[in-house]
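Re-run requested by the PI after the first attempt was lost when the workstation crashed. Everything re-entered from the original request form. Ligand of interest: coproporphyrinogen I.
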Amino acid sequence: MFVFMTKLMLKTLQKVNTDKPPIWFMRQAGRYLPEYRELRAKAGDFLTMCYTPDYATEVTLQPIRRFGFDAAILFSDILVIPDALGQKVRFETGEGPRLEDLNLDQLSLDHLHDHLAPVYAAIGQIRSALIAENFTDTTLIGFAGAPLTVATYMIEGRGTKDFMQFKKFLYGQPQEFDRLMNLLIEATAQYLIRQVEAGAEVLQLFESWAGAVGGFAFEKYVIEANQKIIAKVKAVHPHIPIIGFPKAAGIYLKDYMHKTGIDALGCDFTLPLNYIRDELQTIMPVQGNLDPGILYAGGALLDREVKNICDTLGEKPYIFNLGHGIHKDTPIAHVEQALKIIRAD
Ligand code: 1CP
């Protein structure tokens, strides 16, 4: 008899209650793992890792082998999109991303899929590796940065704390900014559609810098831009679950949830658990939201906070995750401590 088993993560996204929540951690592949650091040293360059399917597959699998997470996330970066559009990106060790000066006239969709072909190949290879290594309940998440977040890097040329060059462009050259956003919307939608075709089972849109704007800019460049991408993806793949992660969106969160078409909300660590349970989890499944700083600090507080998340959100579908990416110096023992509590609860 053919028995159809749905994966834990997919069940939760279909709003089915499960005994235990699926678990994965944002940025779960990365420098806190010695096996990652070893491979990174061998590859030499971060983007080489992203664009070499063997490396990307290996690194994606590393946290799954070590911790048995319920979801694997494609090893790549949100900045492969500017790179594929023609704005060269490089990563200096310990310095973060550097992008060459933005020139809108030089960006184009023409080489998008050629450039990203290794990423699509990696997705297929990761799916095969998960099966070969018997991680048959592990769901593969594909992802992209949302346009506003990616645009902050394209305009600033690097990570920023105050977003002032970005805002000067957004508010000072609105037509040019719209041109950039429209290009990113199209590129991101096409990229995500191809990821699904290559084997991604869930998608996450990282709007990590949603909290950088408010008012009309939030409405247009966060909500509308995310909505357009999701509509384009769902027009081709209506059943693909999409998780939105609009970090620090505060008072705009419910609007974001109702208008973008996401299936689940990634909650950042600033959101109070009772608010998530009473106001957000009543709308759709939620994901989150342990403060990576608490995971880094460890101790009795980590035990309490993890248990509190499980107890507060456990009545309805939720995915255990962090409220932002794991810090690179996080002790592995703290990850194990958190997992023990979630799994025992
Ligand atoms: O080895 C290294 O030195 C590179 C460190 C690193 C890693 C491991 C970067 C550079 N990116 C990544 C991988 C990555 N990035 C993943 C892989 C999958 C996983 O989660 O395991 C994902 C999903 C991302 C997404 C990403 N990149 C985001 C959105 C999530 C978030 O943290 O808010 C952002 C903002 C980036 C940009 C970026 N890439 C890398 C760095 C250091 C940064 C942040 C730069 C900054 O703003 O200071």
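Saved to the shared folder this time. The first strand starts at residue 71 and ends at 73.
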